[in-house]
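USER:
Make up one protein:

ASSISTANT:
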Amino acid sequence: MIEPIRIQIRFADIDIMGHVNNAVYFSYFEITRMHYFKHMLDREWDWNKDGIILLKNEIEYKRPVLLTDSPKIRMKVDHIGNKSFTLSYELTVDGNICCIGKSILVGYDNSNQRAISIPEQMKDELIKHQKEQ
């Protein structure tokens, strides 16, 4: 099982209200995806040929996150199709849910600029992670 990632909040993440700006959470989700993929896939993974592209992001804010907080984000695999998959995220601070989100990603060959089936090794790892959640 992959441990949730701890996010270090930067001063630049904070808005005038004193909490993490709403747009910054999507960067946190991206950092989370890469954390999980780093543990799931080979370091020599060719993201240009066997990559993914983001189709949709959504988020629901529950409570603000402050500069002094130390949030953790857990990622789950909700759905795996042939060409796309859905990931969900739960950001917590001290066990309290601050936001939840979802991303739909599509297998993508950047070299040829076209959607592809989810690469086999990636799909296998997504299935494995889905079973462990």
Summary: The chain is about 25% helix and 35% strand. The beta strands are 5-6, 51-61, 72-80, 84-93, 96-109, 114-115. The radius of gyration is 15 Å. The chain has a mean pLDDT of 96.
